[in-house]
Amino acid sequence: MAALLSFFAPGAGQLYIREPRRAAILFAIFVVLNLAFFFGLPRFHPDLPVLSALIALTIAALCLQIGAAVHSFIHARRAAPAPLGVWQRGWIYAAMVIALPALNVAAGPWWIKSYYIPSASNVPTLLVGDRFFVEMGHYRDHAPQRGDMIVFISPKDGRTAFVKRIVGLPGEKIQMRHGNLYINGEAVPRRQIDDYEYQSEDTTVVMHQYVESLPSGALHRILKAGDDGPLDNTQVYDVPPGHYFTLGDSRDNSVDSRMLPEMGYVPAANLIGRAYIIYWPVARLGLKFD
């Protein structure tokens, strides 16, 4: 019992075996680690140094839980029977075990959330199987910028979450001509680089790869199979006020704002947050979206 209590709430097992001072110290350390994790880290952008700190805090908390459990188990076996102290009450143990998980659940979701990539619509920026963090509520305090990779709720079904790149702002005119992106009648420069070999199941597909330079100065890679596909020559899209025009980085394999019946313009109210950094798989840890 002592070991189980200490694993879920370091210090609770020590309290159970009548070591209140040690219990207070271990529980205080556990509280500090949890508060640092859930309240300290959100104040910083979730980049690689912060991810390293997050991992360090997680390892430290786990080591503390295991160490406290082992300590309480050994000392419980050695302890002689004794009457219960005033602090040895079931509700105290329950409060210690429940308090921090409840705090974590309440505090964690608002600042950052993890998403998973099931499709190839944003290759080479996001690969199938990538997991990445999203800064939730980022756009409550910041205006969406051209080049941002955003996560949003589908304006059509109101349920499905998508991740795409903003290329058009409210009031602008967007068009595709011969595979090139035009904003307000001006061609967006793109520079061809080495071809990209995309592995799809057992097939390797060679795609043309470009670095696109948006008017904001944002640079990102895009893939093209060619410049004569069904979405390479489009109408002029007039982006309504309070809406944004998005494209996938894999331009010939993306359901995005070019498809007005399926997707269309993204209302500002549908923005979930800014996709910021990849954390899995390990080989892609720390990669951002520009």
Mind explaining what this structure looks like?
With 290 residues, the protein is an alpha+beta fold. It has two domains: 2-107; 112-284, Ribbon (Umud Fragment, subunit A), CATH 2.10.109.10. 30% of the residues lie in helices and 28% in strands. The chain has six helices and 14 strands. The chain has helices at residues 2-8, 12-16, 20-40, 48-78, 90-107, 138-141; strands at 112-116, 131-136, 149-153, 161-168, 173-177, 180-183, 186-187, 190-200, 203-213, 219-224, 237-238, 243-247, 266-267, 271-280. Strands 1-2-14-3-4-12-13 form a seven-stranded antiparallel beta sheet, with no helix packed on it. The longest helix has 31 residues, at 48-78. It is elongated and about 80 Å long. The model has no long low-confidence stretch (mean pLDDT 84).
Write the layout of secondary structure elements.
Blueprint (H helix, E strand, L loop, with lengths): L1 H7 L3 H5 L3 H21 L7 H31 L11 H18 L4 E5 L14 E6 L1 H4 L7 E5 L7 E8 L4 E5 L2 E4 L2 E2 L2 E11 L2 E11 L5 E6 L12 E2 L4 E5 L18 E2 L3 E10 L10
Antiparallel strand pairs: 1-2, 2-14, 3-4, 3-14, 4-12, 5-6, 5-11, 6-7, 8-9, 9-10, 12-13
Helix pairs in contact: 1-4, 3-4, 3-5
Low-confidence stretches: none
Termini separation comes to 51 Å
Order of helices and strands: HHHHHEEHEEEEEEEEEEEE
Helix content: 25-40%
Brief descriptors of the model:
alpha+beta, 6 helices, 290 residues, four-stranded antiparallel β-sheet, Umud Fragment, subunit A, seven-stranded antiparallel β-sheet
Question: Would you kindly provide a brief summary of this structure?
Answer:
This protein is an alpha+beta fold and 290 residues long. The protein is 30% helix and 28% strand. The protein is elongated.
